[in-house]
Here is the input.
Amino acid sequence: MNEMTPPKAERAAALKGLGTERKRVEDARFTQGKGNYVDDIKMPGMLFGDFVRSPYAHARIKSINAEKALAVPGVIAVLTADDLRPLNLHWMPTLAGDVQMVLADGKVLFQGQEVAFVVAEDRYIAADAVELVEVEYEELPVVVDPFKAQAEDAPVLREDLEGKMEGAHGPRRHHNHIFTWEQGDRDATDSVIGSADVVAEEMVYYHRTHPCPLETCGCVASMDKVNGKLTVWGTFQAPHAVRTVASLISGIAEHNIRIVSPDIGGGFGNKVGVYPGYICSIVASIVTGVPVKWVEDRMENLMATAFARDYWMQGKIAATKDGKITGLWCHVTADHGAFDACADPTKFPAGFFNICTGSYDIPTAYLAVDGVYTNKAPGGVAYRCSFRVTEAAYFIERMIEVLAIELGMDAAELRAKNFIRKDQFPYQSALGWEYDSGDYHTAWDKALKAVGYKELRKEQAERVEAFKRGETRKLLGIGLTHFTEIVGAGPVKNCDILGLGMFDSCEIRIHPTGSAIARLGTISQGQGHATTFAQILASEIGIPADDITVEEGDTDTAPYGLGTYGSRSTPVAGAATAMAGRKIRAKAQMIAAYLLEVHDSDVEWDVDRFVVKGAPERFKTMKEIAFAAYNQAIPGLEPGLEAVSYYDPPNMTYPFGAYICVMEIDVDTGEWEIRQFYALDDCGTRINPMIIEGQVHGGVTEALAIAMGQEIAYDDMGNVKTGTLMDFFIPTAWETPHYTTDHTVTPSPHHPIGAKGVGESPNVGGVPAFSNAVHDAFRPFGLKQAHMPHDHWRIWKIAHDLGL
Ligand code: PCD
Here is the structure.
């Protein structure tokens, strides 16, 4: 190296690559109000659509009269199912292999269901006209309870399926039954449980909730009749999949459809599914020949688009007297609402719920999930969760607590006794997964030490005594959780959605002056991909992250990929980015060797350049190589420096974490206060520690919301009781506690840079940590199980029922 060459560390720091707390490049526009969201898109002559929605949860439609609405100046059209029928678009396929009404066809099945679509010159005219559409309903009996839905004499909800006893996931045994999904060994599990020293049994309910992103769902559809091209800007978490499905449904050739996801104000799984609003806007634009915008309001979002959870999980867990777990049995009753529109990979109708053996070495297990129709909104999305993983983590982390009570054992000790050991990885779970890597004991010990676990238990015991003596009315709960996530779907061999294989992609173009653009098949909704993917690349190709543009979300320019959800971007598209970077580097090596007049194998990589082995003063930087790639004739090599990688991951990644919540509870008012929240995450190699911390803060706050108050609740008539933000709990700075974050690093052995996902982990681990804290506070007084959300009233009720 010559004297002018800055030292390695300095050059590496200038790249702002892996492990750097690089500031988010997207924030310059977000903090200045310069983002470009769907509702910012305004086009000449653009029309607006708005829905007439059903006030009833179950009713027959006798008639729809749009005369008065059509008489309003500025109203262009009112679409009903009858208008869509000739196009065969009055029903649409769901992601789960079911079909769903686009507009009510003969009857409605949930409150808020789309009945008619009013198209008008502006949004306000459309909204006024919605009020004037006269719909005559005949009420039908309503079923909101998934157990009652399975009764012999329960009303038939899906008349379109009558007599169809074969569903998308096997046989249906009742008119409101969707599927049964079984995993594991039933007989062996029955026999282990039948002969165990100790068995704990519990019904664990994870209530219905909703992702509720800041920006609701919406789109602008624009059919250009001159060149035959349909462009749709929308809040899509998977733009390429939307394009393919739109092409298959509409018959428009795929190259004539362009799907663009502009900036997205939070997704959280809410923006994975396909909603009637998209179809109606597209049809309206094709018919009118002008762009049509549809953006739902907050109440529509909460009532009609993609709910999450609603799982009734019956469990049995068996152990020896000294606390070694021998078996796990689980039966889930899954309430899918009126249509099965669950967003899961095709072969997994209950998502990855079979990760429910958690972090524990459980030799024998059995799981059955029954999907059921009710008069509720469809959905079942992965709200900050890799397809039903939060339900699974909540289930096992509650079962462990219940078992600890049964055994009279400390719950931290019970966990440590049953963790999969470091030397057991890769670990084959009883329900079918191969965990890639983990070091649970190290994380657990670090967490317990960090919060001062032993002292906390002592304090808790003293508190109980003081309570009994009448000296305090506050209890102390210590909520423990050790979770294992499963993120990064693929592999294509077992993961697809509607037949589309779940790989992902990255395409890199190096410009002659040594800067670059990378395009990916994923789409950020706030995660900061433009920041972090440039960091992966900077470390791979030696070009500063600041000189790399990352672009996602436009199907005309980005390579095909399956999008962003299930924390799959880092495990899949992140891997593609590294692999494409390595292809760039391989070509750069040949160019450098040519320029340096040595053999390819005589140069070696050094941060941002190739140097001649043994002669460090002779080198070519990536900047020089990029220029030469375009401007110098190199024998045997094409000009240019570009690469693309389509990455099909060999396995998922298995991030994990140890979360501990210390909570004070006032038994007289049910109020809670979080004294301490400790979150240790292990997501393998960390790309940007600052972004990871932000992800953890956001995810734990959503977990706080879910565990402590957030809920989509229905009354017996099927009315949504929590359809506004007055009733649906969103934590503000006031309720949100201080979080302490921590980490260990156990790289994924199969990921090119060893990274696992992290975005969902805090939600997966957070919910059981909060809930277990509530349960733990009441454990000394005999509480075994109480349903979430633990709002003040429900907590007061626990205390009241225990006679406190
Ligand atoms: N990272 C790092 N490192 C590591 C990992 C990771 O750094 N190791 C980072 C990355 O790069 C990014 C983030 O972090 O940036 C995240 O990642 P991930 O985990 O891979 O994930 P993604 O795929 O990207 O994303 C997704 C997620 C989800 S799924 C959700 S729900 C949520 C989360 O993400 N969402 C959201 N987060 C968030 N954030 C925000 N801001 N927003 C939003 O929306 Mo689902 O399934 O959809 O339900």
Remarks:
- Residues 237, 266-269, 382-385, 525-529, 532, 564-570, 683-688, 691-692, 695, 698, 755-760 surround PCD (CB under 6 Å).
- DSSP finds 19 helices and 34 strands in the chain.
